[in-house]
Amino acid sequence: MAANVHQRAADQRALNTFALWMAWAVSSMTVFVMMYRQANVLTFIQHDHTRITWIILGMFILGVAVSFMQAMKLTGEWFRAYRIESMIKGKGLAAVNVRKSRHVVDRFIAALRLISEQNGRLDVESLIDVEFSAQHRLSQFVSLLGNLMITLGLIGTVLGMTITMNGLHGALGEIGINQDLLIDGLRSAMDGMGVAFYTTLMGAVLGGILLRVFSWITDSSVNGLQDLMLRTCIVYASADLEPSDDRDIRALDASVERLQQRVALLNTAMQASREEMKGLREEAARMHQELVSLAEDDPVRKLAAGHARYALSVRPGLFSRLFARRR
After folding, report:
1. How many domains does the chain have?
2. Domain that holds residue 290
3. CB atoms within 10 A of CB 232
4. pTM over 0.90
5. Does residue 176 share a domain with residue 48?
6. Residue 132 within any structural domain of the chain
7. Does 183 score more than 70 pLDDT?
8. pLDDT tens-digit map of 310-321
9. How far apart are CA 156 and CA 192, in angstroms?
10. With bands split at pLDDT 50, 70 and 90, how would you rate the model's confidence at 54?
């Protein structure tokens, strides 16, 4: 009972990464809605002829999608890590049934057991860093997208200011000469100011704040997962990491237990097979009886038997003469 309670509590802790990610996603949506209502961002994005805001928004969507998939994967890793911790607590490292799956923690345990069985030089911290390096790189990719969005915002600022200066220069040249060109120049200058403002705003908020926090959430989850596996190995599996007679005995006990489980599964399968064979024999016997009864009631068979009896009664010596000729 206590083990079940502990496992449920561990499963609840495993959801922390996903819950934190969703909380920040809701906050991000709230910020974006506020930006839309206060600054009318979407309308400007639709009419942005420089397309810089389009690129910034596309990179933000890509970063959020990558971060969401990583958060889901890390949540599954946490569930599996807590189950591995409970197995190692009970019977040591040999009790862990390493499955062929995509879980990083399973690959880590498999590598740990392989090094231990071969009596190789074991460095748990280096092994953890190697196994979880792909997850760190994925978080760094999301952070890189955020940095690129900030850079694009600065580029958009410079471009917008350039458009503004060109528009003002053209407008000043048309003062008192052509009123329409003056208005066009001022309009171009205002468009440039809009580009400078919106690109800076989107790059700083979406990339510098929102996307970087998404990256921090997943990267912190990876670090916590590494700490959990390292603590589990040091506290509960330290005796299995050094060559000793006790480790060999525990490994043998775990192998015997797995063999017993397989034998039990084999017995169950054989029992089910015997029941199926018994049912098949009963079905075959029932089909045979049905065929016999059907053949006895067949009128063609009765007619053939009557003709045979008639032929024998008419010419009783026919078959004896035929056999004599063949001899």
Report:
1. 3
2. 258-296
3. 21
4. no
5. yes
6. yes
7. no
8. 555 655 555 555
9. 9
10. confident
